[in-house]
């Protein structure tokens, strides 16, 4: 039986992951730190935290593994610095605490094109995070690099809605890696990787997600 931490439970991918974890009989408890309370559940421990207040001495860091589904955009965060504080600093801080708590497995949501040497902020930050988490030496590390995420978000994102419409229309002629990555499928891959905890370092690409979908 498995105790897992889920970071980003209120997001698009994280929301799907939370549902799957709570329904899975292999999972005994889900620790989901969030800024606002989640719907109570008998298997759910929901510490209220913020990205600037990570309680390093909390006992709930003692888990078997974790799923990191944190993610924002520069536009949402308000600046490049605020974006990096969430997508790099906060995500890495969580991974560090999970590792210190004895966690041996991590499943990470990254991005198509993640590259620490990129000149672009978003893929560079994702690539740097992948490298930093790789240095923590989790026994099992799965990095999922989705393309454009498909799914119903709680907040309005008009440009993303337009992009999603265009990608769905063009799907028959697009290569697998350029197609929409369903958030539900990304979540399912993360959950299975975290529960199984298969030793090794794995990268799941957007083409893999499209093929599995």
Summarize the structure.
The chain has one domain (2-212): 3-Layer(aba) Sandwich (Rossmann fold). The chain contains seven helices and nine strands, in the order βαβββααβαββαβαβα.
Which labels suit this protein?
single chain, 213 residues, alpha/beta, Rossmann fold, seven-stranded parallel sheet, two-stranded parallel ribbon, 7 helices, 9 strands
Please give a structural write-up.
- 40% of the residues lie in helices and 17% in strands.
- It has 213 residues and is of the alpha/beta class.
- It has a single domain, classed as NAD(P)-binding Rossmann-like Domain (Rossmann fold, 3-Layer(aba) Sandwich), CATH 3.40.50.
- A 7-stranded parallel sheet has the order 3-2-1-4-5-6-9, sandwiched between helices.
- Helix 1 packs across helix 6.
- The radius of gyration is 16 Å and the shape is globular.
- The protein starts with a strand and ends with a helix.
Number of strands: 9
What share of residues are in beta strands?
Answer: 15-25%
Strand order of the largest sheet: 3-2-1-4-5-6-9
Query: What count of structural domains?
Result: 1
Which percent range fits the helix content? 25-40%
Distance between the termini: 27 Å
Order of helices and strands: EHEEEHHEHEEHEHEH
Structural class: alpha/beta
Query: For the record, what is the CATH homologous superfamily label?
Result: NAD(P)-binding Rossmann-like Domain
CATH class: Alpha Beta
CATH architectural label: 3-Layer(aba) Sandwich
For the largest beta-sheet, the strand count, sense and barrel status come to: 7 strands, parallel
- Count of individual helical segments: 7
| Low-pLDDT runs | none
Report mean pLDDT, rounded to a whole number.
88
- In CATH, the topology is named Rossmann fold
